[in-house]
Amino acid sequence: MKAAVLKAFGTPLAVETVPDPALGTGEVIVDVAAIRVLGYAHEVFSGQRRYLMDLPMIPGPGGIGRVRATGPDATHLAVGDWVSCDPTVRSRDDLVSPDIILQGLTAGSEAALRLQKYFHDGSFAEQVRVPTENVTRIGTIDAAAAPLWCALGTLLVPYGGFLAANLRAGETALVNGATGTFGSAAVAVAVAMGASCVIATGRNERALKDLARRFGDRVRTVKILGDEEIDRRHIVEAAPAPIDCVLDLLPPMATALQVRAALMTVRPYGRVVLMGGVGMAGGVGLELDYAWLMRNCVTIIGKWMYPPDATPRMVSLIRSGLVKLDDFEVTAFSLDDANKAVAHAAANAGPFKMTVIRPSDP
């Protein structure tokens, strides 16, 4: 099969012929129809993000495709089914504290590198081998719609955060960093989950106005100025009710001050979920007031990705029309143009924009 291979950090992807993946028990082979290219993929491939990757590797987390073959333990999947491949692969020998990798992207720890060495390659290829439990049927779709369904990979991240926070219909949610790729998706997800109001913060005034246009009066925007006290006051003033839940999705280049400004707007007994990258690029870490946390009974949750059942639940939200894939603007590239796709994704990242690679047309 044809694949794009990252042979060393800082080198272009090499598009070449590699052996087809071999099927084992507990695994599924999927013909990849479309795979999302992350806006920060160039930072990963250059080594800037210092992700744990056993190179050479076929990168590419997740994807949309059709089942080519299943192992003997699959009881529902059938050859030809349209599926979503979840890159969040968990070790199977410790259900309480599993090691996690993002297949085709990074190992979550040194211990998880063993798992990465087995589920080694991602979806920048005509075929990918995925654990059976990481394959979810999405129902019948037109092949031309496969790139749009790649938005699942964007939507699922904030959905995992809101599930961790147990966001309830009628609550007020704050999305910190709402003008980025995942933050804007978080606004769409919170609206779909029934939040009565979503406070969307960010520095990009144009993107904030677009969020208000897309989702109407249930979204209230706050432009972040960089002054912690002023920003916190503006957030509280924008909220029509006490803020029940804060989801932080700020990127590595943001500061801990920006996280704290939003975090400390949550009501007593409220919940805060940290899913962003603040501190990963160096700089001052997040400092919080011990007494404030304790006396206000605030719950702080760190969350990486989403639970296994999030994918079928998000598929249901999409099928019901509560989440609209048509909100996303897609630019597609062939596998031969994988390096152009990575460059395009870096230059065109932002709210409701996707760059995808189409390795094959099942």
Helix and strand run: EEEHEEEEEHEEHHEHEHEHEHEHEHEHE
Proportion of strand residues? 25-35%
CATH class of the largest domain equals Alpha Beta
- Class by alpha and beta content: alpha/beta
CATH fourth-tier homologous superfamily of the largest domain: Medium-chain alcohol dehydrogenases, catalytic domain
Helix proportion of residues, in percent? 25-40%
Radius of gyration: 20 Å
Q: What sort of overall outline do the alpha carbons produce when their principal axes are compared?
A: globular
Number of helices: 11
Distance between the termini: 14 Å
Largest sheet: 7 strands, mixed
Q: Can you describe this structure in just a few lines?
A:
By secondary structure, this protein is an alpha/beta fold. Helices cover 27% and strands 26% of the residues.
Walk me through the structure:
The chain has 362 residues and is α/β, with parallel strands linked by helices. It has helices spanning 41-46, 113-118, 146-149, 152-164, 181-192, 205-215, 228-238, 256-263, 290-295, 310-320, 338-347, and strands at residues 2-5, 14-17, 27-37, 63-70, 82-85, 88-90, 100-102, 106-107, 127-131, 135-137, 172-176, 197-202, 219-223, 243-248, 266-274, 299-302, 329-334, 353-358. The strands form four sheets. Strands 3, 4, 5, 9, 10, 17 and 18 form a seven-stranded mixed sheet that branches. Strand 12, helix 6 and strand 13 (219-223) form a beta-alpha-beta unit. Helix 4 crosses helix 5, helix 4 (152-164) packs across helix 10 (310-320) and helix 7 packs parallel to helix 8 (256-263). The radius of gyration is 20 Å and the shape is globular. The relative contact order is 0.16.
